[in-house]
Design a protein that fits this description.
The protein is mostly beta strands. It has two domains: about 80 residues, no CATH class; about 45 residues, no CATH class. It is about 5% helix and about 20% strand. It has a three-stranded antiparallel beta sheet with strand order 1-11-2, with no helix packed on it. Strands 3-4 form a two-stranded antiparallel sheet. The protein has a two-stranded antiparallel ribbon with strand order 5-10. Strand 8 and strand 9 form a beta hairpin. About 5% of the residues are buried.
Length: about 180
């Protein structure tokens, strides 16, 4: 049997915590029954520090490590990011969708250059054909409103990494890690 360090976090592929481990789901533990683990974790992840402390919550999160974060802050015990994101109009860069057209004779029915130029094409063997012919009399219809209107309705979309196969578990018993 392998020896584990107290407080060691391990990734597992099953949906339960193995013997002497607890899932990293943010649960509160009593200090009286877990004094050694409390001496390592303290209240970094939460708890009141007098009767209980909290385990890390790695559900739906990715572990980052320790040290200085991107803005010069210590990232131990801090959680960041969100599980759902709402993209608003003010977050999108201003842009337009141009449609180019030309009355000159084209050489193909499906131009590949961007922006595409749609025009009359010469067909091999002679003659011309237009992919956008004038409408028949009385056949004009308005564009479908959903094709030209805003979409999304400020509803959030999921913003999570794959998560179905890995759980994080922390050792409740094991070798107390030495500082040297």
């Amino acid at each position: 049997m392998a020896e584990y360090y107290l407080g060691q976090i391990m990734m597992t592929g099953f949906n339960f915590a193995q013997k002497n481990f607890a899932m990293c789901n943010g649960q509160l533990l009593p200090i009286a029954q877990n004094q050694a683990l409390f001496s390592l974790l303290g209240v970094i992840y939460g708890g009141n520090g007098t009767t209980n402390f909290q385990l890390p919550n790695l559900m739906g999160r990715a572990p980052v490590g320790q040290g200085r974060g991107p803005f010069g802050t210590n990232n131990i015990g801090q959680s960041g990011g969100v599980e759902n994101v709402t993209v608003l109009l003010n977050q999108l860069p201003q842009h337009t969708h141009m449609f180019a057209a030309n009355t000159a004779a084209g050489t193909t029915l499906t131009p590949s250059a961007a922006p595409g130029t749609y025009a009359t094409a010469t067909i091999s063997g002679g003659g011309t054909e237009s992919i956008y012919a004038p409408p028949a009399s009385g056949a004009l219809v308005p564009l479908l409103p959903a094709a030209i209107s805003s979409v999304g309705g400020t509803l959030p979309h999921a913003n999570m990494q794959p998560f179905e196969v890995i759980n994080f578990n922390i050792a409740l018993n094991g070798v107390y890690p030495s500082r040297n």
